[in-house]
């Protein structure tokens, strides 16, 4: 089992455009609604109040318009307002993963198809992936309100409309079944799984994080998930349970995907994930570490294809 490590753990991916400090003046030029939230911190630098969900939402809108040309983006009240820099990192490391099987070249364009499991109302992974690399995305979610909100964003932006489709998962315990067409191929699947195992576990963890935020921890790059509608953030079995179900289901579409991947936020869950991958006899398994603000995150990637099948795949599907 290979463990890919970053040279500098606290830095975002080299291609991540959010590596530099936020230039708030430039961002407010692109999105004037950010301006009223900009203030000076104790060192005289411009910042916003990262504990204020409206300020974080305005920052996200500014980042999405400035870096990704997304002219309209919104989420319903209480839904997950993601940290854009961290989400972008996962996409760039996925591009590297594909490049490793493509003579170092990142495959770009509409031939590359990705499935974002649990895309949420924010639809941020498909937005970043389609704008950075031209990939096509299907975003799935069990929450129909989230799917409707994501679809409103996609339909409002002509650059997204051609590349992103949304599908509702009607069976809450299913991951791929009901979403993945009989002959459908995906080059990648990605997922930021529901993390907590119950609503009460989520409430106590959030309380702890908010206390930390008020004391100034990890506020600068917006590493916390602001908002977050309860069912977005928890499921039976928590993160480990969700990923285990995904691994089990991946077996049924094993020849229709190049790399399956999922974030694993809690390091302690890796052992369970590796055990599940052993059970299904995945041919290749990689763990890729990423820096997300102050903490290290990671995703696990698995495939049922061997290198010969991967060569066949890229010649057939990526070179058209
Ligand atoms: C932690 S949120 C991630 C949202 C978004 N991708 C992000 O990173 O901000 C997890 C998402 O998974 C969705 N979800 C839960 N069970 C699911 C399932 N079986 N299939 C698809 N989505 C599911 C939730 O509704 C929620 O939107």
Automatic annotation (TrEMBL):
Q: Where does the UniProt entry say this protein principally localizes?
A: cytoplasm
InterPro entries recorded for this chain?
A: METTL16/RlmF, rRNA_lsu_MeTfrase_F, SAM-dependent_MTases_sf
Q: Does the record's keyword annotation contain Transferase?
A: yes
User: Which top EC class is named for this enzyme in its record?
Assistant: transferase
Localization terms from the record: Cytoplasm
Q: Which reaction does it catalyse?
A: adenosine(1618) in 23S rRNA + S-adenosyl-L-methionine = N(6)-methyladenosine(1618) in 23S rRNA + S-adenosyl-L-homocysteine + H(+)
Q: What is its EC number?
A: 2.1.1.181
Q: Which GO terms describe its biological process?
A: rRNA base methylation
User: What's an example GO cellular component term for this entry?
Assistant: cytoplasm
Question: Is Methyltransferase among the key words of this record?
Answer: yes
What keywords sit in the KW lines? Cytoplasm, Methyltransferase, rRNA processing, S-adenosyl-L-methionine, Transferase
GO MF entry, a single one: 23S rRNA (adenine(1618)-N(6))-methyltransferase activity
Note the SUPFAM superfamilies from the entry: S-adenosyl-L-methionine-dependent methyltransferases
PANTHER family attached to this UniProt entry = RNA N6-ADENOSINE-METHYLTRANSFERASE METTL16, SAM-DEPENDENT METHYLTRANSFERASE
**Family of this protein:** Belongs to the methyltransferase superfamily. METTL16/RlmF family.
Q: What is this protein for, i.e. what is its function?
A: Specifically methylates the adenine in position 1618 of 23S rRNA.
Q: What is this protein called?
A: Ribosomal RNA large subunit methyltransferase F
**What is the originating organism of this protein?**
Marinomonas piezotolerans
């Amino acid at each position: 089992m290979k463990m890919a490590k970053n040279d500098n753990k606290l830095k975002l991916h080299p291609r991540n455009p959010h590596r530099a400090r936020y230039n708030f003046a430039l961002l407010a030029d692109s999105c004037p609604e950010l301006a009223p939230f900009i203030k000076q911190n104790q060192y005289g630098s411009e910042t916003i109040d990262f504990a204020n969900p409206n300020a974080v939402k305005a920052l996200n809108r500014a980042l999405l318009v400035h870096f990704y040309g997304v002219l309209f983006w919104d989420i319903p009240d209480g839904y997950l307002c993601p940290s854009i820099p961290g989400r972008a990192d996962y996409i760039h490391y996925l591009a590297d993963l594909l490049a490793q099987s493509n003579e170092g070249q990142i495959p770009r364009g509409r031939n590359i198809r990705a499935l974002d499991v649990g895309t949420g109302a924010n639809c941020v992974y498909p937005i970043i992936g389609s704008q950075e690399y031209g990939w096509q995305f299907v975003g799935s979610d069990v929450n129909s309100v989230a799917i409707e909100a994501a679809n409103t964003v996609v339909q409002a932006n002509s650059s997204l409309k051609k590349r992103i489709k949304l599908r509702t998962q009607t069976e809450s315990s299913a991951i791929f079944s009901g979403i993945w067409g009989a002959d459908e191929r995906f080059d990648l699947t990605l997922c930021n799984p529901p993390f907590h195992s119950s609503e009460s576990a989520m409430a106590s963890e959030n309380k702890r994080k908010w206390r930390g935020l008020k004391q100034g921890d990890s506020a600068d790059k917006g590493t916390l998930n602001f908002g977050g509608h309860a069912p977005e953030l928890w499921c039976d079995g928590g993160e480990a349970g969700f990923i285990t179900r995904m691994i089990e289901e991946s077996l049924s579409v094993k020849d229709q995907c190049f790399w399956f991947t999922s974030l694993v936020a809690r390091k302690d869950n890796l052992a369970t994930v590796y055990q599940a991958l052993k059970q299904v006899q995945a041919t290749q398994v990689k763990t890729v570490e990423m820096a997300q603000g102050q903490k290290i995150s990671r995703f696990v990637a698995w495939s049922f294809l061997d290198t010969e099948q991967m060569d066949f795949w890229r010649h057939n599907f990526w070179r058209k």
